[in-house]
């Protein structure tokens, strides 16, 4: 007899979250990343966060940070980042 209470969620209990590989492909090197976000240009992380907040809510910043690292090779906010405009000096 099947266990009641799990419904269609299966063993993990997370439900259907979509295809993560397709999402990463679209917003990374795919059409969404090249035309909407324009990776490796100034303000790319901000554009990513603005577009993906609609779909991911508060998780968008973390997802965009990982995508930024994958697409540009540096984390957002790193001094090697193309879009960084000011550098803090230590006194």
Account of the 3D structure:
It is a single chain. This protein is mainly alpha-helical and 91 residues long. It has a domain at 20-72. Helices cover 45% and strands 0% of the residues. It has four helices and no strands. The chain has helices at residues 20-27, 31-37, 44-56, 60-72. Helix 3 crosses helix 4. The longest helix has 13 residues, at 44-56. The radius of gyration is 18 Å and the shape is globular. The model is unreliable at 6-10 (pLDDT under 50). Residues 1-14 have a biased composition (Basic residues). Residues 1-43 are annotated as: Disordered.
Number of strands: 0
Secondary-structure class: mainly alpha
| Termini separation | 69 Å
Main beta sheet: none
Give the overall silhouette.
Answer: globular
The share of residues in helices is: 40-55%
What do the pLDDT scores average to? 81
Q: Please, how many helices?
A: 4
Q: What percent strand?
A: under 5%
Order of helical and strand elements = HHHH
Radius of gyration, taken over Cα atoms and rounded to an integer in Å: 18 Å
Low-confidence stretches: 6-10
Topology:
Blueprint: H1 20-27, H2 31-37, H3 44-56, H4 60-72
Helix pairs in contact: 3-4
Biased composition (Basic residues): 1-14
Region (Disordered): 1-43
């Amino acid at each position: 007899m099947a266990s009641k209470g799990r419904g269609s969620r299966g063993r993990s209990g997370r439900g259907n979250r979509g295809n993560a590989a397709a999402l990463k492909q679209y917003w990374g090197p795919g059409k969404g990343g090249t035309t909407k976000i324009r990776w490796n240009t100034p303000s790319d992380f901000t554009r990513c966060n603005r577009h993906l907040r609609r779909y991911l809510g508060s998780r968008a910043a973390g997802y965009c940070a990982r995508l930024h690292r994958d697409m540009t090779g540096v984390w957002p906010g790193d001094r090697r980042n193309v879009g960084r405009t000011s550098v803090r000096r230590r006194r």
